[in-house]
Write the structure tokens for this entry.
Amino acid sequence: MSNMNLLQAINNALDIAMDKDSNVVCFGEDVGHFGGVFRATSHLQDKYGKSRCFNTPLTEQGIIGFANGLASGGHKPVAEIQFADYIFPAFDQIVNEAAKFRYRSGDQFSVGGLTIRTPYGGGIHGGLYHSQSPEAYFTGTPGLKVVVPRNPYQAKGLLLASIRDDNPVIFFEPKRLYRASTGEVPEEDYEIELGKAEVVQEGTDITVLGWGAQMEVLEKAVEMAAKDGISCELIDLRTLLPWDVDTVVASVKKTGRLLISHEAPKTGGFAGEIATEIQQRCFLHLESPIERVTGLDTPFPLAHDKEYMPDHLKNYEAIKRSVNF
Amino acid sequence: MSNSKQSEARVVHSPVFISGDDLETPMLKILRQDGTTYAGAELPEIDKTLALKIYDTFLFIRALDERMVAAQRQGRISFYMTQIGEEAADIGSTAALDAEDMIMAQYREQGALAFRGFPLEQFMHQLFSNENDLGKGRQMPIHYGSRDLHYMTISSPLATQLPQAAGYAYGLKLEEKDNCVICYFGEGAASEGDFHAAINMAGVYKVPAIYFCRNNGYAISTPSSEQFAGDGIAPRAVAYGLKAIRVDGNDVLAVLKATQEARRLAVEENQPVLIEAMTYRLGAHSTSDDPSGYRSKKEEEKWREKDPVARFKNWLIAQGWWSEEQDAADLEQKRQNVLAAMKKAETVAAPKVDELITDVYDVPPQHLQDQLDELKAHIRKYPEAYPKTAGRLDDE
């Protein structure tokens, strides 16, 4: 075990993946010698050479198109999009190409080796274009897996599983926690299974569900609620596509209440999908309407980012509202 | 390291604008329409066997295209795209390659696939989206693909295959393989962002890739004069660090020669190349298109006189390798083969409904399994509404 921050855990996962499998190749804007603008790929070029860790020209559609081609030849590209806000030029290559490669060829070709790493989320004074949480644009695309870790331990295990998974994975990294989140991380190789949620804290009154950086916020809200005598069951969804319906259903059947929280805007956000599925499966168990605590339906503002964010206080209020319904 | 070319540049002290006119792009021509070659023309490497294989593919594609357009008009298939007029471009270039060089096509390159040996039956299974289709009946007609023949499955979005070709070629370079990628696209697709992203990356990483542009004059109805202002596509490649060559795309010997040289550059020197083949789409864009709305019969006639198939036939006859009698008999035989294969393929059943959820992921996740079970229960309730699958739900 050693104490790592989230960036170090990601760097460590990439190092292990590249060391164990010569098919793993890392690239993106400033990813080479510089080690990425957040330093997630530090020292990888020194260790594995320029042919396996390198800079790309400034072209997101080119990066993912290139990665698709490389993956279709049996390699395992780990492509970095510098900020999730800049992933949209690559939308076509992700949605129409990566996600459909295997299906459209009848399993003759696939880009299963592809992993896209990209930092997402607010709270770093990033304004409109360094703050977004675009996960829901991708959860509507069959063929992709969408993964979001909450801390260093999770990041390492989930990233190693993502790189080795034989499907294209988008790995959203909570950049607000890159240096802020630290913890004990095993030095050895380990994987955390994709498609499985984790019950982080057991409780009886309400299920509180989130992923990524929002988990830290929810932990605070749950602590506040505990002081009021409310017992929350806290769940980290970890993989959004395909998501672990069974774990959430089991929890809601026990607690009778559900709160879902994410930074992305409410309308069209992934909470809507979860709420629908859960009301269908748990209708007779629900004691109150499912709560959604999310970002506002606005672009991400700079001066008002505290107001925009679904912070612990908004979640605390929603927990009480649900329990006192 | 900054750009070394900039630091070596000639310095001037009054404004000097550079222009595309300063760059001359010559056009390679070897074969005249009458089957004779230009004096001093440097011939490609070609023997009788290769020449007849190319021509056999020409005739096969003519027979296939002609028959399948008719089949679409009769309502037997939903859609088709011919490549009449452009046969020399894709078939002539593929003929220059190693059988293990990857082909990443746009959609009008069935000739390249036929040259590689894709069986007539497989063409038909794809066109009829039946259960023997390698693509499991999922894509519109003409979206072929064959792993065995190193022909990447076609996707409809334009130019997406271009950056993929750079990545695939980079993989070949990593593996130190003596192979390259050929990537086909049209002059219209070269307006997509993916074209510029791809050519730039191919140049930066020095990958063994040949970008082959079929400049056929039209993107559906839009003429190339409304597509770009510069001198075609070839000069763009030079700006991105590729070598470029323009050829008469209706001259199969010129296409073959250019591609043989391009392959040598790509594989031996990791020098990516762009080939611009000047040709003409004699047919409609697709069976959903009617060219009479945007171009004249006279223009089409002018290009019909430059027919690449007739031109090559004239050369073959001049070599003493072919005759008009053989030609007529062979084309007729191919027409009959196509008809027979079509009749067979259209009776083959559609893929089973279970194939709906395979290959979305490596293993179908639970939610897809649940959706399939729900769907099957629904089909059992209303079997007459789902005739393709209702009768075969239980023959596991």
Remarks:
- The mean pLDDT of chain A is 98.
- Chain A has two domains: 2-185, 198-323.
- The longest strand of chain A covers residues 258-265.
- DSSP finds twelve helices and 14 strands in chain A.
